[in-house]
Write a structure and sequence with these properties.
With 300 residues, this protein is mostly beta strands. The chain folds into 3 domains: 99 residues, Immunoglobulin-like, CATH 2.60.40.10; 94 residues, Immunoglobulins (Immunoglobulin-like, Sandwich), CATH 2.60.40.10; 93 residues, Immunoglobulin-like, CATH 2.60.40.3080. It is 0% helix and 51% strand. The protein has no helices and 24 strands. The chain has a 5-stranded mixed beta sheet, with no helix packed on it. A 4-stranded antiparallel beta sheet has the order 1-2-3-6, with no helix packed on it. The protein is rod-shaped. The protein starts with a strand and ends with a strand.
Length: 300
């Protein structure tokens, strides 16, 4: 603290704060690291800020003027010892020695991968990870990703931060297979990457519309587990038409491959052909459960 005595029996109080900060390219100032010396100038008697006070770092022959709130700041200073002078009209000039120590922020991320498991088409899921500063000074940085089906929030951070990652299988629009992306954390304390893993899954139907006179309707997708999947077909009014079960071994009579497919011949539980219209199917397996619809349409 520097206290300046005013010639008219008032006093100027000058406070100095040393703030460790690394200036980062995303601020638009270039890839330069340094410290910030910042503080305020106020009237000691009434506590009012004093704008227009001249603050000088003598070793650098560099000066600045306090703003309307009495605040001043010097950026990008190397660590070391400095003599700082405070002056204002009507006040006695005074100097103070300041030691500016180097900051050393360190980026730490609590995971190196986020596995979202199985996600049906049209669904989203969100997981989070933690960014912490295990060093000293101020950790700042940005968060980006490399896939349009990945969204991160926030995009910028200061020190300890919780980051939410959302994956969207509506944008990805895949019904099977494992899909990967990367989240990149770039900071003044290091760089880290997180692998994002999503397994697309669902039970789809083909062909749709379906004509029973031309063959079988096939339910397919990674959501079907051989021997452990049930599909129930309903009318729009909620009447159960038929229940289908996945098999472990192929059914040669129905040309079922016995893996990720279940087929239907267009007949109800009494083995009678169903009428044309829209039908609902509800599927359940150890992988997932869900609902879909298809249309039966016989061409005349």
């Amino acid at each position: 603290m520097i206290k300046l005595k005013q010639r008219k029996y008032s006093h100027l109080s000058v406070s100095f704060y040393i703030i460790g900060l690394s200036i980062f390219s995303f601020f638009g100032i270039g890839n330069i690291e340094g410290e910030i010396l910042s503080g305020t100038v106020v009237n000691k008697i009434n506590g009012n800020p004093i704008p227009g006070a001249k603050i000088t770092v003598l070793e650098l022959s560099s000066s600045t003027i306090t703003n309307t709130l009495g605040i001043y700041s010097f950026g990008n200073l190397p660590a070391g010892d400095y003599n700082v002078r405070a002056e204002s009209d009507g006040f006695v000039m005074k100097e103070k020695s300041i030691t500016l120590t180097a900051s050393n922020p360190q980026l730490h991320v609590n995971v190196n991968a986020l596995d979202f498991g199985e996600l049906p088409v049209g669904k989203t899921a969100t997981l989070s990870f933690e960014i912490t500063n295990t060093g000293d000074g101020t950790l700042t940085g940005t968060i980006t990703d490399d896939k349009d089906w990945i969204t991160v929030d926030p995009l910028n951070f200061i020190n300890n931060t919780t980051v939410n990652v959302t994956v969207d299988n509506n944008k990805l629009n895949q019904s099977e297979g494992q899909h990967k992306g990367t989240v990149i954390i770039t900071s003044n304390g290091g760089i880290a990457t997180i692998e994002i893993v999503l397994t697309a899954t669902c039970v789809l139907v083909k062909p749709n519309p379906y004509n029973p006179d031309r063959g079988l309707l096939t339910f397919f997708g990674s959501g079907i587990v051989p021997g452990e999947t049930t599909i129930k077909i309903y009318t729009l009014s909620g009447e159960l038409v038929k229940t289908l079960y996945s098999s472990i071994e192929p059914d040669v009579n129905l040309h079922d491959n016995g893996l990720n497919e279940i087929v239907w011949d267009g007949n109800d539980a009494q083995n009678k052909p169903v009428v044309d219209g829209i039908y609902i199917y509800v599927y359940q397996s150890p992988n997932e459960k869900g609902i879909g619809k298809f249309t039966v349409l016989r061409k005349k």
